[in-house]
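Work Package 3 (structural annotation) set out to generate three-dimensional models for the target panel prioritized at the project kickoff. During this period the team completed the workflow that converts sequence records into discrete structure tokens, so that structures can be stored uniformly alongside our sequence database. As a representative example, we reproduce one entry of 246 residues exactly as it appears in the project archive.
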Amino acid sequence: MVNQEIKLTATSRTLPTKSLNSQRSQGLVPAELYGSSKPNQHLFLNKLELARVYHQAGSSSLVDLFVENQPACKVMVQEVQVDPLTDNFNHVDLLQIAMDKEMFAHLPLMLIGESKAVKEHGATLVTPLQEVEISCLPKDLIPHVEVDLSRLNNLGDTIRVKDLQVPSTVKIITGANEVVASAILQKFEAEPVAAAPVAEAGAEGVVAEAGEAGTQTAPVAEAGSPRPPRREAGGEAGKKKSEEKK
């Protein structure tokens, strides 16, 4: 992983800066340079040049910044504000890097290779982690960390942070056991089968047929309604026999 040289030029601006929207319409983007124990500098960047540099460097690569007659300094893009309607740059923060001090950065993960588990066994690739935090000297900074998917051969195989390969000059700070990528079998729940429709009360045809066949259905008492009077065993016949005995 060899760092390519990326250059960006800037001009100074004074505060308060008048007519910022007018300046933006002319292709100038306001920026702030800070860090390295030096006073902040208020700058203008060329919109097209900034777009090219940001595409190359993102927020994880060093950029050589040239401000008018000053010596070039190493910076990293820290924050970019973009107009939500036009996607144009509104403002940029640049962090000046001290080359002799340890630095910290968040590096994107780059997926390489092909997973056998996904290709041949129908696994689903899950990548919950998109970046890792690292520390190193600025001269040892790498633009990204590669994730070799060819390690995922079987269902359930997992790549963790501790499995990532980086130069010995770079230290990964993100937790060693955090999952970077895994091959899992996606489970799909069967859709519930609709229940058969229940005959509604008042289906006269069905009740009539049941009555004609000599079958009677006992009425069902609603909750809270009084129960019907209890009949003695034997009905009317039992009552007559009782009277005869008397």
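Residues 123 and 185 are 5 Å apart (CA to CA).
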